[in-house]
Amino acid sequence: MKKNLVFLLLFSSLYSFSQHKLDSLQNLLNGSLADTQRVKILISVQHIFLTKGKMPEALAKAKEALSLAQKSGFGRGECSALEALGVSAEYQGNFEDAFKYFDQQRLVAASHKDLLNVCYSFSNKGNCYMDQSKYEEALKEYKQAMEAALSTGDKKSIALCHGHLGDIHTLQGNYADALKDYLIALSTNEEIHNKHGIAHHLGTVGNIYYYQGNLQQALSYYEKSLDLLREIGEKEKMPSELTNCGVIHRQLNKPEEAMKDYKQALSIARESGDKKSMDEIYLHLGILDQSLKKYEEALVYFHLAISLQKEMNDIAGEADTYAEVAHTESESGHQEEALLDFEKALEMAKTSTSKESLKNVYAGMADVYEKLKNYPKAYEFFVRSTQIKDSLVNSDNNKQIAQMNALYQSEKKDKEIQLNEAELKKQKAEAEKQASQQRVFVIGFILVACIAVFILAFAIYIFRSYRQKQKAHRIIALQKALVDEKNKDITDSINYAKRIQEAVLPSDSLRQKLFPESFILFLPKDIVSGDFYWFSEKNGKKIIAAVDCTGHGVPGAFMSMIGNAFLNEIVNERGVTTPALVLDQLREMIIASLKQQESDNKDGMDITLVSIDLAHNKLEYAGANNPLWIIRNGNLEEIKATKQPIGLYGDQKQPFTNHSLGLHNGDTLYLFTDGYADQFGGEKGKKFKYKTLQEKLTSISSCPPLEQKEILQKTFSDWKGVLEQVDDVCVIGIKI
Questions:
Q1: In 3D, which of 64, 92, 90 has the Cα closest to residue 78?
Q2: Which 3 state secondary structure label does DSSP give 313?
Q3: Structural contact between residues 39 and 80, judged by C-beta atoms closer than 8 angstroms
């Protein structure tokens, strides 16, 4: 959801004349006025023209105000006129001119020792950087604005600066910091009874609760903001909060209420010519139609939004809207078109550095790639989206947000107590007088009531003990439900990853085609596996590998996806079939992709890789730590591996050794990882060991492959017994 982070004031230093209707202000200009009054009214008229999108008229009034202010030596008026010209340039996307006017505003303000306008000039430059999604540059300007505001002690300006800092933190996904600044801005505006500022920051606090997934709390803040805007007659500020309410109602599955909110917001925005609000409303009308499966209507609204966003150079807005266009195309079955629009959205989201936008684009791309059955890409973008989501929404953020809200409520009550302190002192004197008269009566009443109170207290004690036990049981049940729900979310995500991993592994039909007499015993320790098997056929050679990645579970599975993709590239795309060369290139790709020469990352993999040329009865093998076993005429021969992993190992990288030997009918090859031999079990809880595995394979090598698999699986299960499986298991047998 793209929120309107509307700045507290369009022109930070403008005057109250902006509240008047345009006709009334024009009539005032026709009368006899002092130059200072005329400058103020001209700037207010310029403000109204600007919000209605009438740029020539707005510029003309701002220039007239500047000329008059300079002529009459009205310093504050000159600053406000320069500010008005800068904001007009900003609206047109002409940031170079905008910066020029704001810098002039600061110079004039400094010459008149007007620190407030110095603050506003920095703030306005920050707004320009925000429009361009240059958040670090904006943050520098806002911090300088805050220094100037603190120097003046002007609480309205201080609140304004805290609001800007909150906007930056929100767009960067730092929600706890954003809420801290928004609550300070809200509290400061309450101190000075600035209802416009209070209304605005009730909305920004609501935004933070929305981003954290607390919809009801967010809706409560939006509705409070709307009530206050109605009270003070700020109709033009209402579209943003109405849109926010519509978003909440849509997500609460109340489409009729959402449509009502959006239509009301659009009517107000059109009436005032507020294009920023209009593009936001079009976007959400499209999302609403999308959720109702009205795809054609949704696309119409999205393109209306994009048209306005292009006009206003709103890159972050375009990123969000193109993502929604792509999502709609995907939902309606047009995956290729969806992918193109997601890629547009991704480029814009990267430019804007909005974490929310990036998270949503990555999630959408994962869905599209899954529908296209490109599971490696689906998994890649799913992981990217999840990583950003985890960084945005976490328990620490939620805890900080809850603590800050509690602190704000507490401070608010303290201020109310201070305001009433004088009244309380007066009441205290009167109360002491009355208390003296009542003491005699009270003492007698207490004596009579003691016995009754004692009996009642005992009964209450029994009842409260019972209630506390009930409450404890409810709390335990609630905590269990929360833990169960979190565990379900995690398990669902891992099961999703398992489906992708299973889809990436070579199919059983391909195994039967390449190696008719073979078996694969594959037993992951967890839902997903760090072990994997891989095979292919290239240039008349059948190539197979058993691979053991660092770790198991989700980290191991992630490494296995990388290894699988790199083997496909080296063998199937580059055409490399010599095992040692394959391992050399695989090592280089792993070191580069994990940036191992620049970090402490030591992840990697052990591997047995075999290339079989049946036309010439020839076998080639290379191994990283894992050997190859061949059973011929009942005797087991071990072909030793190079003693180094795939990955960064020591200071020097030795080439992997390539072994070449002839094949005979009846030879049986065994490729394996270390999980089977390392399993603890048996009567004494010891490791199975490689020697025992050699003896077992030798004894069953003459059996059909599927029977060998069943024997190995039963032996492993019987050995393990009730003990936990210690690692992933992969054993491959191939009979020539």
A1: 64
A2: coil
A3: yes
- Which string of DSSP letters, residue by residue, matches 498-563? HHHHHHHSPPHHHHHHH-SSEEEEEE-SSSS-SEEEEEEEETTEEEEEEEEESSSHHHHHHHHHHH
Tokens 């804007």 locate to: 352
Distance in angstroms (rounded) separating the CA atoms of residues 84 and 14: 9
Please say whether the beta carbons of 538 and 577 come within 8 A.
yes
- Name the nearest CA neighbour of 560 among 497, 495, 626: 497
Q: What's the pLDDT score for residue 482? A: 56
Of the candidates 678, 376, 675, 723, the residue with the CA atom closest to the CA atom of residue 524: 675
- Extract the tokens encoding 553: 């579970």
Give dist(CA 659, CA 472) in Å, integer: 68
What's the per-residue H, E or C state across 68-116?
A: HHHHHCCHHHHHHHHHHHHHHHHHCCCHHHHHHHHHHHHHHHHHCCCHH
Alpha helices in 273-334 (DSSP H): 275-291, 295-311, 315-331
Structure token pair of residue 684 = 């004494």
- Per the listing, tokens 């579970």 go with 553
Residue 542 predicted with pLDDT over 50: yes
Q: Do 533 and 545 meet the contact criterion of CB atoms below 8 Å apart?
A: yes
The Cα–Cα gap between 100 and 106 comes to 10
Residue-wise pLDDT tens digits, 608-629: 999 999 999 999 999 999 999 9
Task: Please give the structure tokens belonging to residue 204.
Answer: 């920004």
User: Range with the lowest mean pLDDT among 300-304, 470-474, 702-706?
Assistant: 470-474
Q: What is the pLDDT of residue 125?
A: 94
List pLDDT tens digits, range 640-680. Answer: 999 999 988 876 678 999 999 999 999 999 999 999 999 99
Reported confidence tier of residue 503, pLDDT bands at 50, 70, 90: confident
Nearest Cα neighbor of 365 from 327, 409, 398 is: 327
Alpha-carbon span 432 to 31, nearest angstrom: 63
What is the pTM (predicted TM-score) of this model? 0.48
Percent over 90 (pLDDT), the chain: 45
The first and second tokens of residue 596, run together, are 């191992």
